[in-house]
Design brief:
globular; alpha/beta; 3-stranded antiparallel β-sheet; 8 helices
């Protein structure tokens, strides 16, 4: 029986059939970035006992885990047989907070936590900057050492090679190009630039961890009827079936 951990985004979590839901022993580490995972906790941060509006509990847990750096310990404690990485959440900018790096996700943006003294002087590190890529590559080296020096060395490593879709399928089954998209409200994103960055990340990941198994869909098409709405990384059912069949062949 496989025990799966995901370090990535909802595109991998959503591979499990929606009507059945994910298995109880699935660990899902999301809304983070490699530099954030390997950073010290944000000093002075105080988590609320209940999720602030408009966050749900699982969204709040992801924000708190990123700020307090719980992801790596949770990953080791889970003792997974398979660890699936995808880098779609590596679209968010990072924040430098007095010696800590945190992920500037939508959930953090709306949580109110950026108004705390511990985070109020955070400095942005834009995702497409050279500084961000350097931080990411340094964290990748730490990740490779971490995976090989912990019980995770026995897990099967899988890279879900996801990219942003540049088209969506309308009600007449016609492909329509995305005219504009945003990562956070009011902050437009360049699909091609982010896909180039994902290709760079994925190639570097596989070079650092040549034992990793790679899965990729033959086609990417966004679905306006997706449960989470239309987005370049909310795909049609064929995408998920394609990836799922490849993961099943790897023992997931």
């Amino acid at each position: 029986m496989s025990r799966v951990a995901i370090v990535g985004s909802c595109i991998t979590r959503d591979l499990w059939p929606v009507q059945e839901g994910a298995p109880d022993d699935l660990l899902y580490v999301s809304r983070t970035s490699l530099p954030s995972l390997f950073s010290p906790p944000a000093r002075g941060f105080q988590a609320r006992s209940e999720p602030p509006e408009p966050l749900k509990r699982h969204q709040h847990r992801a924000v708190v885990a990123d700020l307090t750096k719980q992801g790596l310990a949770a990953l080791v404690a889970h003792r997974p047989t398979h660890v699936i990485f995808d880098f779609i959440d590596e679209r968010f900018d990072l924040l430098w907070v007095e010696g800590s790096v945190v992920t500037h996700s939508w959930e953090l943006e709306v949580s109110g936590y950026l108004e705390q003294p511990a985070l109020s002087r955070a400095q942005p590190i834009t995702r497409l900057s050279n500084a961000c890529e350097e931080l990411w590559r340094d964290a990748l080296e730490e990740l490779a050492d971490f995976l090989r020096s912990t019980p995770l060395r026995d897990a099967r490593l899988i890279l879900h090679e996801a990219r942003w879709a540049d088209c969506w399928r309308d009600a007449d089954d016609v492909r329509r190009p995305f005219e504009a998209t945003e990562i956070l409200p009011g902050r437009p994103a360049d699909i091609a630039a982010h896909n180039r960055l994902l290709a760079t990340y994925q190639d570097a990941f596989c070079a650092a961890l040549p034992e990793v198994a790679r899965v990729a869909a033959s086609d990417r098409l966004a679905d306006p009827d997706h449960r989470w709405g239309l987005s370049p990384f909310h795909y049609t059912p064929d995408y998920y079936r394609d990836i799922w069949s490849q993961l099943h062949a790897l023992g997931v």
